[in-house]
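A reminder from the course coordinator: this example appears on the midterm review sheet, so study it carefully.

Given structure:
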């Protein structure tokens, strides 16, 4: 396991380094050739570097143990970084949009040949990054997402290459800001999605793909479980799901607490990929003045006060 994590960090480190190098090269190339499409693609590459960097940080910081003050460890660092970077990318996207519209109104000459050569270098570097990530993407949701970003950036590099060739042949300088608008739209979409997902996690929302009603019904199928209430499902980061719930069990279940807990934990791990679950078992009756839920679905007048 240690060797696998070391290899993962090493290959992710190389991928981040190459992606940052592409970004810097395209920023300089965009300024030199006056190509807004290259500048836009540089920002697109920055989103890839961000995704890979967050993945690398998550792999590294997640290994740090919790402390008395940080009882869940450093998992949330990934989410705060994603929210900040997503917001900053939206600001950059707005600037690129304004600049592209201005260049459509008054086209600016670009160095088409140099623009194409830089796009070729970016495409080759993207292919190298894909080769580095090949084979490790199956082990991490973040890496699989980053791979999709890299594929999208490779497609953008092809677009810049084609646009550069057409500009060199036809002199249609309006192609540069037009392509920039397409790339900017892709950046804004990714930034909005990242920002929204980060905000959802910070609001302790249910993880993507988790329906709490389905989780409740699944727990109710377990032997001896009669009711489920105070059910909460949330994420610490993009890969760490947590759950807490109260399980009302029969008297027989209270005599086999270890078995009930083991079955519930196994169900949550295998069906919902929830590895951190805190479950409280309660007797199959309501204590005086206790607030409980007798229904499986929250729409069925779920909460009522039971008094013996």
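Designed residues:
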């Amino acid at each position: 396991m240690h060797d696998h994590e070391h290899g993962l960090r090493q290959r992710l480190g190389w991928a981040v380094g190459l992606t940052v190098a592409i970004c810097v090269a395209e920023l300089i190339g965009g300024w030199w050739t006056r190509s807004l499409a290259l500048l836009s693609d540089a920002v697109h590459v920055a989103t890839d570097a961000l995704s890979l960097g967050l993945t690398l940080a998550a792999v590294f910081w997640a290994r740090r143990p919790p402390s008395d003050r940080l009882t869940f460890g450093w998992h949330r660092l990934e989410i705060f970084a994603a929210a900040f970077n997503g917001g900053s990318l939206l600001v950059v996207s707005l600037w690129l949009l304004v600049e592209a519209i201005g260049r459509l109104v008054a086209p600016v000459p670009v160095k088409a040949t140099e623009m194409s050569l830089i796009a070729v270098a970016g495409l080759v570097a993207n292919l190298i990054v894909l080769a580095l990530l090949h084979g490790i993407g199956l082990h991490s949701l973040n890496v699989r997402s980053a791979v999709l970003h890299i594929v999208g950036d490779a497609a953008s590099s092809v677009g810049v290459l084609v646009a550069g060739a057409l500009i060199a042949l036809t002199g249609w300088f309006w192609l540069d800001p037009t392509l920039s608008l397409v790339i900017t739209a892709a950046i804004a979409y990714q930034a909005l999605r990242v920002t929204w997902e980060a905000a959802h996690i910070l609001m302790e929302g249910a993880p993507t793909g988790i329906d709490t009603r389905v989780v409740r019904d699944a727990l109710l199928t377990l032997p001896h479980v009669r009711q489920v209430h105070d059910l909460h499902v949330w994420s610490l980061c993009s890969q760490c799901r947590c759950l807490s719930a109260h399980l009302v069990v029969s008297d027989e279940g209270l005599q086999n607490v270890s078995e009930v807990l083991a079955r519930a934990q196994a169900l949550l791990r295998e069906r919902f990929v929830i590895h951190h679950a805190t479950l409280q078992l309660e007797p199959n009756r309501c204590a005086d003045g206790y607030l409980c839920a007798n229904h499986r679905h929250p729409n069925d007048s779920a909460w009522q006060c039971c008094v013996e």
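Residues 1-203 form a domain with the Alpha-lytic protease prodomain-like fold (CATH 1.20.1510). The mean pLDDT is 80.
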